[in-house]
Automatic annotation (TrEMBL):
This is phytanoyl-CoA dioxygenase. Gene3D superfamilies: q2cbj1_9rhob like domain. GO terms for molecular function: phytanoyl-CoA dioxygenase activity. It is an enzyme of class 1 (oxidoreductase). Its EC number is 1.14.11.18. Belongs to the PhyH family. InterPro entries: PhyH, Phytyl_CoA_dOase-like. PANTHER family: PHYTANOYL-COA ALPHA-HYDROXYLASE, PHYTANOYL-COA DIOXYGENASE, PEROXISOMAL. GO terms for biological process: fatty acid alpha-oxidation.
Length: 100
């Protein structure tokens, strides 16, 4: 990267140099066990409830991969993104976790 290339991470003690570089190169970073298994299960259940339309938070948009319909039908497995979920208290709680 040339010196004028923007950096998306801060030079601090939260991430290692290798983690920062991986994020800069790939746009994501996987940190295993950052969020508890209990929380992940709660978020997964709420995600499924939204996909099945058991709850309908205002403004939420469900994006589906139509190419998976023949394999999974209308299940949540065809959903690749739930967008604008800030009105769903349980799912939005993920964004407010101190770990995140």
């Amino acid at each position: 990267c040339v010196p004028l290339c923007p950096s998306y991470t801060l030079d601090n003690d939260l991430l290692s140099t290798e983690q920062r570089q991986f994020y800069e190169d790939n746009g994501y970073l996987l940190i295993k066990k950052l969020v508890s298994d209990d929380d992940i299960e709660r978020f997964r259940k709420e995600f499924t409830r939204i996909c099945k339309r058991e709850v309908k938070p205002p403004g939420v948009m469900i994006m589906k991969d139509e190419s998976l319909k023949s394999q999974f039908g209308q299940s949540e497995k065809v959903v690749n993104k739930v967008q604008d979920f800030q009105e769903d208290e349980e799912l939005f709680r993920y964004c407010t976790l101190p770990e995140v």
